[in-house]
Structure formats: C-alpha cells, structure tokens
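Z., the sequence and structure:
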Amino acid sequence: MTALAVPTETAATAEPGDLDARSRAILDLERGWWRVAGAKEDAIRERLDLSPSRYYELLGALLDDEAALAHDPMLVRRLRRLRAARQRSRAQRRTVAAAG
C-alpha cells in the first residue's frame, strides 16, 4: 500500500489573486507614485487612508510575501534589491563606526 502525497497550498504556490485589495493598492501606489502630483506621503494618506509609517510597515511585509511576488514580480524584486542595498549600507556604516 502506497500513500499518495497531496499537495498543499503554500506561499511558494501563491496565485496573484491571493492578495487582498489593500495589498494590491499598496503595490499599485508604489509602482507609480512619482506620477502623482505632490509628496508621496500625501498620496499614501489620500489614496490608502494610512499613515506613511504604517504604509511602509505593510510594504515591507508585502516584499516577503510570495503572493505579492506573483502579483507583480518586477516591482517586488526591484524593491527587494533596494531594501537589501539599504541594509548593506547600514551594516557597512555600523562596521566603520565601530572600527573608528
């Protein structure tokens, strides 16, 4: 008797439709915020009714969500690269400050 493996839904197999409306709106704003007249923070408040700090918390979590990657792969990969570069820069500054 052999047991059949039943695939389960995981983050790695997430479909683009798995994102809620707010998550899609955050990614949409991040994709084209520079086209909006005024400051990005104003657009965040007006379009999403979120504080900028909450927006960036949610955006950071979205970058780690495979459903977000499936929804907009180019944007999420670009934002992940930018985040990694900022993390490396901060780590490098800490190392230089500690050595000095």
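Residues 73-99 form the longest helix (27 residues). The CA atoms of residues 59 and 78 lie 13 Å apart.

Let me know what you think.
H.
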